[in-house]
Amino acid sequence: MPLITVIPGDGIGPEVTEQALALLDGLGLDLSFDVLDHVNAGTFLATGCALSDDDLARIRRSDGALLGAIGDARVAGTRYARDVLLRLRFELDLYANYRPAQLLHDRLSPLRDPDRRAIDCVIVRENTEGLYTDIGGALRPGSTAEVAIDTEVSTHLGVSRVIDFALASATRAVCMVDKSNAVPNGGRLWQQCWLDATAARPDLATSHLYVDVAAMRLLSDPTAFDVIVTNNSYGDILSDLAAELAGGLGTSASVNLNPQTGFGLYEPVHGSAPDIAGTDTANPIGAILSAALLLERVGHPAEAAAVRTAVRMAVAEVRCTADLGGRLGTKAAGEAIRAALH
Ligand code: NAD
Ligand code: IPM
Ligand code: MN
């Protein structure tokens, strides 16, 4: 029986995770759960460590993990996110961050032109390198002469494997996004790996955009994209943009994946939303669609499809939270999706 580790986390994390778990429970599948309730900012504040080596070992023994959100104003500016979320991504080598964006309902698009609303793309974000490696330092910290350095790391292995994953995920087209006109070394490496990998895939439409123009094109015509592959930072930013074009940040799902081991850390794209935490207003759809991504990869693709259909039905009937124009709270919105499943 597949064992899923659950990390509800902070803020709205536990609220949306509760709805994702209720939905999974209701499917009556052969899944069991190991809930790590203590991996949160409170534990970090109390002990200085929110994710212990033992926790990591438990997660490694499981078949996948579901995470709510990590983040709390009380630990802003500390190593908290690094020690939990980034540690999981790095130590489990979850190098492909797969973030699909498909328009949930026409009324949710912020675009005026109906012909350009139907975004249906995936952002494949490199997830273990770039600006996130914590290599750098500060000279004369705290002084007015301070120099702060964060190194952007790209390796041949890291870039080529995420490009390979993106090409393997695509059926139509892949666009590689970089900033090689301004970032000479990493830019050259991304360009070289891209050239080498695409030579073997004449069946796909392949293209390249600089990240500034990619952001503009995502807004002017999101239907132009199928798969976008890019580095860690650009993928972070473009995936929030794509999420908003698809219906809203609260609806966006993701998996941090190691395609070789098959291990995935499934989480909504949004954060802990402290501005609405505890008010029963958070949209549970990002967490629920992340659970659907999990179902797909642990051998239940039919159930994953049914969950997606149920989400679409609930949204179409405006049985959803206020960010999507509805009047339901988090719990009631989760319940509406479960009801649409039956
Ligand atoms: P955020 O995604 O938490 O919130 C941005 C805005 O979107 C807020 O106005 C919030 O209310 C709204 N929002 C987000 N999720 C929503 C939902 N499900 N339903 C309705 N509205 C929703 O981003 P932020 O405010 O920049 O970050 C808050 C904290 O979360 C920070 O500590 C940040 O580091 C962390 N964070 C964590 C993750 C993660 O765990 N993967 C991702 C992003 C941010
Ligand atoms: C995300 C988040 C994280 C990131 C933060 C919380 C470190 O924004 O998962 O998109 O930048 O990767
Ligand atoms: Mn982000």
From TrEMBL:
InterPro entries: ICDH/IPMDH, IsoPropMal-DH-like_dom. It comes from Streptomyces macrolidinus. Keywords: Manganese, Metal-binding, NAD, Oxidoreductase. It holds the Pfam family Iso_dh. Gene3D superfamilies: Isopropylmalate Dehydrogenase (3.40.718.10). The keyword NAD applies. Residues 3-337 form the Isopropylmalate dehydrogenase-like domain. This is Isocitrate/isopropylmalate family dehydrogenase. Its cofactor is Mn(2+); Mg(2+). Coiled coil: none annotated.
